[in-house]
Structure formats: C-alpha cells, structure tokens
Amino acid sequence: MPDIREENKDIFYHVLESMQGIVVADIDGKIIFLNDRYSEILQVDKHEAIGKDIRDVIPGTRMHIVARTGCEEMGSLFMLKNGESVLVNRIPVQKNGKIIGVASFGSLSKADEMSTMATIQKISHLSQELNQYKSELNKLRGAKYSLDQIIGNSPNLIKMKELIKKVAQTKSTVLITGETGTGKELVAHAIHQLSTRSHHSFVRLNCAAIPNDLLESELFGYEEGAFTGAKKGGKVGKFELAHGGSLLLDEINQMPQYLQSKLLRVIQEKEVERVGGSKPFDIDVRLIFTTNQNLQDLVHQDNFREDLYYRINVMNIEIPPLRERLDDIPLLVEHFIFKINKDLGLNITGIDDKVIKLFQDYHWPGNIRELENTIERAANLALQGTLKLELFEHFLLRAEKERSRNRHEVCLETARVNAEKETIIRVLDQTNSISMAAKLLRINRSVLYEKLKKYDIKIK
Q1: Which of 292, 386, 448, 455 could serve as 421's disulfide partner, Cβ 3.0–4.6 Å?
Q2: By the 8 A CB rule, do 91 and 24 touch?
Q3: What's the CA gap between 410 and 220, in Å, rounded?
Q4: Mean pLDDT across the chain, nearest whole number?
Q5: Tens-place pLDDT, residues 49-92
Q6: Which three-class secondary structure state does DSSP give residue 364?
C-alpha cells in the first residue's frame, strides 16, 4: 500500500473521530484506538483506555471472538453497561492474509430514535430465529461444525484453513490425515458446510466402529431377504442417504480389503449396488476420508490397496498436531472455557498464566481432545473463578509420565534404527543385489529403496 502523505494523515484521523462510535483492538484484544464519541458513551478516558483489554472497557464485547475466528459480524445489536443500544459491525483486520486486529463501529441510539431501535430489535430477533432454524436444519442434515470452529491463528493452521476453502469448491475426493484428537471430523464438516452441497445431507460412517460383517450392508444397504435377519423391505445404505451431499468415511485405514475393492468400483463407476441386489444405480456423492495412520505404509505392508489409495488421495489435508501449533493454545483454552461454561452451567472466568506455560511445554499425544478433557476436569473441580495450577495435579502427573516415556522411547528408537541400518548394510554386502536383499529382509523393493535413502546407504 502506498505511503499516506503527511498532510492527509490528519484527514484520516478526523474521519475516525467523526464516526458515531469506533474502537480498534490488536490481535491480543488490547485497545489501540477509541474515538471521542465512544469514550463519552462508555464514560472512560480514551487515553487511559488505550492499552487496556477490550473486555475490561466494554464488558460482553465479541471483538476478541471475531479476532479469533476471523469472521465478521454485521448489524449486531449490543447493549452497553449504561443502557445505551449500539448497532455494531465487527470487522477482522488482516495483513498479508493474517489477522492482526479487529475494528468495531456502529451507531449509538438516542431517545428520539427508539422507534428505529424497536425495528432493529425486531430484525435482530428475527435474525436469531433464522439462525436457530439454520442450526436445526444443519443438525437434521448431519453437519454440525463450520470453519469458524477450527480455532487458531498459527501459520500452519491459517494455511490449512485456506486449503479447506479451496477444496470445498471442488467435487474431488478428499483425504484428511492427522493424529488422533487433532479434529479430522471437524475439518470434514467444514468442507461440507462450505461446499455447494451444504444444503444436502452430510452422512458419516466410522469404519472402525462397525463389525466387518456389518460394514458392507451399512455402506451399500441391502435388499429384502438378502440374508438371514434382513429387514422386511430392505435397508438404505449410507451411499444412498448421502446422495447429492457428502459421505465421510472415518478411519478408512480400518476398512477390510474385500470392501476396498467394492469402494474402488463405486469411486470409478459412480454407482452402487445393494447387498442381494441385481441392478446398480447411479449416485452423486462427494467422498471424504480420514485416517490416523500412514496409508502409504499400509500399502507397502499389503494392508491397503494401492489403486484405492491413489483414488482417495486426490486432495490431501494434513492437520498439524497440537505440539506444532503451541501458540494456538491460549485461544483454544479460551474457546473451551466458553464451551464448558455454556454446556455445564459453570462460571469459569479465566486460567492462570502458569497453566498456559505448562500446557505449552507439554507434548500433547492426545492433541486437542486431550486439551479439552484436561480443562473440563479442572473446571469441574473449580466450578467458578480462575483455573489455578493446583487444579491440574492429575495433569502434572500425566505430563511427567509422558516425559519419562518419551525419554525411554527415544533410547529404544535409536537402538532400533541402528540395528536396522546395520542389518541392511550386512545383507547388501552378502547379496550384492537389491532384489535378493529385499527378499531376505522380507520387505518390498520399494520399501528397501526408501530405507536406503533414509539411512543414506550407498549401493556398491
């Protein structure tokens, strides 16, 4: 952006001062600008307000939430602590795609504007009803979460959110990868909500939660009399239920191989045949898959079809583990406290900085799910007020065990790596052949080549 000429800076300042009410805060929620009109309404000294937390000056504000989610809020009715009503717009301020602050501006009501405010209140009430209806409709359709609920502003998370927005606009299959507890299902919901299929069904099936002998009928449905115990009239499968919408196959790594071939045919032919049926029928479904295991490793181990892997891995979204986005922990903690207060009827007002430091020093093998459970446990002990360090005794013990286990695993892993490398070198010296060495080591040639590259072993 070109530099603002010095003589024009005064104009920009007076533009802001001429507005009925405007306040600007940085990404940490600290006030960096408050105009005279708003400071008069708030009955605060604008110079003293600068640098203070926005929530201390304007109790009940949602500006910090807008800064956290990056989603603007337009035309919201907000009641100040002095009884004045404000119709506000809250806008996230971005620079190079990263949120650096938030601005809130709007109109302050006067006594002779009550009829206008009554209309605004009616509109606000209707808007709340509409949002409630939308929420109920989304529940019926199956998708509960949106992109706003993926909390964090770390660079790798912002990059992931941008990828989600792009992927949502296509019809290609999506593979979401990440460790347990990172929020893979949440990402799948967000993709559906942002897509052109958002007004159709979002159907989910966890491949690990259903016995293998029932998984096929759950996916494809069955005809009446297809097997002993089949319902009269048959059953509609998940593919049919998701027609026109999206189907999430969670933990696809757990799908048995005999079903993998049927799934491959569905992807290729875009048609489904019920168990016991004789006529396939066309389907229009956007397929989303999740896995917490490396599918390439499973392919090398002959536990997952290679052709299916390439079919489902068209668009890949990898969710970073919590240990790689530690800067997001304060935002996540704030989000979970708000959620826990709402769900459990508690009154937790904050958390000690020492606890945040403790969290940021931890490895988080259970990721975001572990973080939420840790906070909920402490909140149940506190019921109200600030979450102090002494409420996390259970977590401290777990953290120490994890550190001890990690130290032990590092030693074992080093020994394993050294032994593997020495074995490969010895077998190659004996055979002087990649094919023979792979056979003796009982691994595929492609796996052996990967290990040669990994250990920097030169072939003689």
Answers
A1: 455
A2: no
A3: 45
A4: 83
A5: 888 888 888 877 888 888 877 778 877 777 766 666 667 888 88
A6: coil
